[in-house]
Amino acid sequence: MKKIFGVILFVLTFWANSFAGDQYMMQMIDIEHGSGFWQNGYVLYNTITRDALIVDPGQIDQQIESFIHDKNLIVQAIFNTHGHGDHVGGNAHYQELYKV
């Protein structure tokens, strides 16, 4: 778990620099895909610009899509901490849905 948060912090550091000079606030939602083998996914987003990053979409999850829709977020990218199926399983779906 520490490794995942370390990677997310690393990504946020560089992503936040793209907003230099702007006031911004980053938020994160933890999406639990289930128990056991399937891991959590995350949606990180900027509360000012509404730009969002989906992290580890292990499977197609209505909770992710509803959250993005309800917050009117603009998905800019999908990020995977590593290539296991429980982290990349939803990539193709979200790439097509959000054109990223």
Automatic annotation (TrEMBL):
Keywords: Hydrolase. One of its GO terms (molecular function) is hydrolase activity. Residues 42-99 form the Metallo-beta-lactamase domain. Pfam families: Lactamase_B. InterPro entries: Metallo-B-lactamas, RibonucZ/Hydroxyglut_hydro. This is MBL fold metallo-hydrolase. It comes from Ancylomarina euxinus.
